[in-house]
Amino acid sequence: MLLRVENIHKSYGAAEILKGVSFDMAPGQSKVIMGPSGTGKSTLLRCINHLTPPDKGRIFVDGEELTAKNLNTMRQKVAFVFQDFNLFTHLRTVENVAIGPRKLRGFGKKAALDLAYKELERVGLSDRADAYPAELSGGQQQRASIARALAMEPKLILFDEPTSALDPELTGEVVSVMNKLASEGMTMLVVSHEIGFARKAADEIIFMEGGKIIEQGPPSQIFNAPQQDRTRAFLNVIEHGDDA
Amino acid sequence: MIFETLLSQMPYLVHGLTVAIGLLVCLLSLGLALGLVLAILEVYGHWTLRLVCVLFERVFRGIPAIVLLLLFYYGVTDYIEMGSFTAAVLALGLRSAAYQSQIFRGAFLSVPNGQMMAARAMGMNKLQAIRDIIIPQALRMSIGPWTNEFSSELKATSLAYVIGVVELTRQAKYIISNTQGNILVVFGVVALMYFVVNRAGNWALYRLENRLSLPGFEHRGDA
Ligand SMILES: Nc1ncnc2c1ncn2[C@@H]1O[C@H](COP(=O)(O)OP(=O)(O)OP(=O)(O)O)[C@@H](O)[C@H]1O
Ligand SMILES: [Mg+2]
């Protein structure tokens, strides 16, 4: 298994947010996590790379357990793409992508830039390499942040609602980059309510509610014949709007 | 004639000015280095370190500059050998560090959380993230407020004359006592010299701020 999530628990104060979450991912798989707001999806992703250390439970990447000691090297294998991009504002797009290889992977300046241009090309942003993040559209910023993740050559990329800060017309360009990565065999764990991506690229949908996985299975099963009433009700809302 | 006196004394005033500027550069550098460290510890450090920093900052901001100068020169030189210039650099520099730490602290806090989070998420340790991501952004935001610090410290260098640093104000006093009088003219020239250095420094810092400003983060309009 590339990723093993084992019985993750997390509380904030008295509120237990994650109540024992476990699942595995094989190399090359894409999984989409769905579920109502406040259910702990972001908390789960953040626990996976210890941005928020879990209270209980274990995370294994490529068979190696993530601990406080190997945190920084393990995080290089598990990239994170944020809802609000978080590009480094003082660096040009290409420098945003090059900084990881340069500072963390021992690349020389030239090699890091070469790699950065290659990754920008992969997300269709070569022409904006010299722009600062504030000069990019939301969709371009998110594609740049995906390029930044790719430049770490990670084993796995975690995406936390990568398109929900974007206007609908910009969502498409990000989703198509994600589709392409999935088809190239990148292992991706995506929190998203983007049905298009989930149907086309996901090997499995994980449906969470109340800090637990309540249903999981291939998209065809989850979307066409969900077993749980809660899953069905939730999918009705996101597929047809609130009045469904 | 007064203008002849002024002309003949000019080399002393210019020398005094270079001493004042030397003192300014030294104290601001000490203040910058220590102020940055204090700010980093205050924002990202363990609470015990934070406490030490806050204490330091309160003490040095709470005592008049002139008293600090006297304390360092007459108090500390009893135990550690140092000249009046060194004592002035330490007294004013440590005080400047306290003020500068507040400038940098504000700047660190105004860098959005997501920047640190993204840096840590890619595998940077805390120090790397502070050095490569936070400081470059925070320093840019600090230049504006730092300009005020430059101005106050330039003026504060004149206080060093009380412990015998022969800087610009001290030179003026010498000239006045040697030439009996001319108080208004001599101090007028001295005032002009401080004023010009102050404006030049402000202008240079403003230029620097503009040069380093990032698209989307311009703080001020055109000059
Ligand atoms: N740092 C924190 N301190 C306290 N409570 C938190 C913190 N972060 C999250 N929570 C709480 O944990 C719960 C789960 O939050 P989380 O962001 O994981 O939900 P989510 O499933 O990602 O929701 P959404 O779909 O709205 O993004 C929420 O009730 C939230 O208020
Ligand atoms: Mg969330």
Automatic annotation (TrEMBL), chain A:
Residues 3-235 form the ABC transporter domain. SMART domains: AAA. One of its GO terms (cellular component) is plasma membrane. Keywords: Amino-acid transport, ATP-binding, Cell membrane, Membrane, Nucleotide-binding, Transport. It comes from the Bacteria. Pfam families: ABC_tran. It is found in: Cell membrane. GO terms for molecular function: ABC-type amino acid transporter activity; ATP binding; ATP hydrolysis activity. It is a peripheral membrane protein. The keyword Coiled coil does not apply. Its main location: membrane. Belongs to the ABC transporter superfamily. This is Glutamine ABC transporter ATP-binding protein.
TrEMBL record, chain B:
It is found in: Cell inner membrane; Cell membrane. GO terms for molecular function: transmembrane transporter activity. Keywords: Amino-acid transport, Cell membrane, Membrane, Transmembrane, Transmembrane helix, Transport. The keyword Cell membrane applies. Pfam families: BPD_transp_1. SUPFAM superfamilies: MetI-like (SSF161098). InterPro entries: AA_ABC_transptr_permease_3TM, ArtM/GltK/GlnP/TcyL/YhdX-like, MetI-like, MetI-like_sf. Its main location: membrane. Coiled coil: none annotated. The chain crosses the membrane at residues 12-39, 51-73, 179-197. It is a multi-pass membrane protein. GO terms for cellular component: ATP-binding cassette (ABC) transporter complex. Belongs to the binding-protein-dependent transport system permease family. HisMQ subfamily. This is ABC transmembrane type-1 domain-containing protein.
